[in-house]
Write a structure and sequence with these properties.
Structural class: alpha/beta
Number of helices: 10
Mean pLDDT: 88
Low-confidence stretches: none
Strand content: 5-15%
Helix content: 40-55%
Strand order of the largest sheet: 3-2-4-5-1-6
Radius of gyration: 21 Å
Oligomer: single chain
């Protein structure tokens, strides 16, 4: 009988072979016949990988890092889920001092989407820590109603990592809340500074790395369609 450990090693080996074949296929001087053989083997490896990895599982997904695109990537998943006819909930922490453009767009799916922008803006705008903590607590209570509801295939907790970093919520209470997630449902947590406990608990973690930003290097202000 093949053990889980052996399967894991086999998966890693095939991943490594797939990467090697991809790299070798771009090597200079490769003949058409050599390229064809490598791609033939690459197809075989890919088919084996797909055949062996056939589990379905609701995921905990974390988008973090200092780079732009954490919420944007999450909203792409929201759009995909809506396209499949799934019910989705979005709860925005911190943000909420303005009417986000995405909220207007997603209003086109009133029967599938619940959208709650429950913050009151950035901390330097609100200047009221007690009020900010109260709003974060209210947002988390709202989020729990969706996380535990199997009717919602995807729940996006936007900027919750920032609320955690600022101490508005405890990491332990959020981690415990995620345990209430039905087996087939997905939860996305966005925001820079994701705590290690959530990173360890998550199934998929992506860190956006900042290379250049027009606000920092060129003094370009936030623009509609790009930042909001």
């Amino acid at each position: 009988m093949t053990t889980t450990s052996e399967n894991s090693l086999s998966n890693v080996s095939k991943d490594q072979e797939a990467t090697r074949l991809d790299e070798e296929a771009t090597a200079p001087g490769l003949t058409d016949e050599q390229y064809h053989r490598k791609m033939q083997r690459r197809k075989e490896v890919q088919e084996q990988r797909l055949a062996e990895r056939n589990r379905e599982k609701g995921l905990i997904i974390v988008h973090t890092g200092n780079g732009k695109g954490k919420t944007t990537a999450a909203l792409g998943m929201v759009l995909r889920s809506l396209g499949h006819g799934y019910k989705v909930a979005i709860v925005q922490f911190i943000k909420g001092g303005w009417e986000p453009a995405e909220k207007r767009v997603f209003s086109l799916w009133p029967k599938q989407l619940e959208f709650h922008a429950m913050g009151e803006g950035f901390t330097w705008e609100t200047q009221d820590r007690s009020r900010d903590m109260q709003k974060a607590t209210e947002a988390w209570a709202k989020a729990l109603t969706f996380i535990g509801n199997p009717e919602f295939k995807l729940v996006l907790l936007d900027e919750i990592n920032v609320a955690l970093k600022l101490g508005y919520l405890s990491v332990e209470q959020v981690s415990a809340g995620l345990e209430q997630k039905p087996a087939a449902s997905h939860v996305i947590l966005t925001g820079r500074g994701a705590p290690q406990l959530l990173i360890d608990q998550a199934d998929l973690v992506t860190e956006m790395t900042l290379i250049k930003h027009p606000f920092r290097e060129q003094g370009v202000k936030a623009q509609p369609g790009i930042e909001f």
